Amino acid sequence: MLFFPLSICLPVAALAAVLEAQWGYPQILVRKIGHPVMWVGALISRLDTALNLSHFSQTKRRWLGVLGLALIVLIPLWVTGLVLQAGYAVLPAWAMLVVQAVATTALVAQRSLWVHVAAVGQGLRRGGLAGGRQAVSQIVGRDTSALTEAGIVRAALESLAENFSDGVVAPLFWAALFGLPGAVFYKAVNTADSMIGHLTPKHAAFGMAAAKLDDVINLPASRLAALCLVLAAPRANRKHAWRAVWRDAPKHRSPNAGWPEAAMAGALGLRLAGPRIYGGVKVEDSWMGHGTANATLTDLERGLALYRRACGFLIGLLLCAAAPFIIGL
Questions:
Q1: Which residues of the chain form beta strands (DSSP E)?
Q2: pLDDT, tens digit, for every residue of 68-118?
Q3: What pTM was estimated for this model as a whole?
Q4: Around Cβ 78, how many Cβ atoms within 10 Å?
Q5: 275 in Cβ contact with 293 (< 8 Å)
Q6: How far apart are CA 324 and CA 329, in angstroms?
């Protein structure tokens, strides 16, 4: 059983958003059984090892990447379908709605994103630049060894904005359309993109399908994330946030990341993104926003407050959409 009406999917997404914001994914479960992203990651690693062989031609690796992506998506969906079918056979529909919502919380990262970005501020306060660099290295892929305090804060805010879209809005968006299977589908593709969707000699061909599909399925969520951030901006900065989104988001090398990053930059009166170093290579990204690049710890706190308000707008939107169906349960 993989297809559900909106009368089930919208309450699942709304309830999952509320529950995950309150409790997140318990660390005791991570220690005992791992996390669904870890399970999907293990599958991706096995397929990468088995199918992405260096002596294959680029064309063959691209087609094997399509096959690998199909397995990365279909295997988790198949397992999800079996579990849901077994559950609906023994539990009433209202109870399975709650089960779907609780399971969906594992695929949403509101609380964990807050914790990891707040840890950057704590690292700067307690350990200076070394502490901040170590903390921010846990959430970004760029070189952090030479980052100044402003660079550390900008990196944390960029991660906060992008992961608000990828880790919060997108899984809830797909859950709102298709319930738990929708969130599983999204997370499988997004995890594949994060692991193999890179323009490196090893993965440029094999990971192309994952990268392209991830771009497509994140299109609606990135725009919705930008909208939530703009609405959450202080009233005096709301117009600047709108302008930053429409002016700067299309300049970003990603078709999606620029939307929440530009909204975050405009809402805080900062400049984000811009030139960065990855693996020793300088990448000349466009700046998002026309504010100052000298971000401070205070700006990080303002960004976290903005993120909380944006999550509140998203939860409110989901609850309003789901309310007619919840009342009728």
A1: 272-273, 276-278, 281-283, 287-288
A2: 999 999 999 999 999 999 999 999 989 999 999 999 999 999 999 999 999
A3: 0.94
A4: 12
A5: no
A6: 9
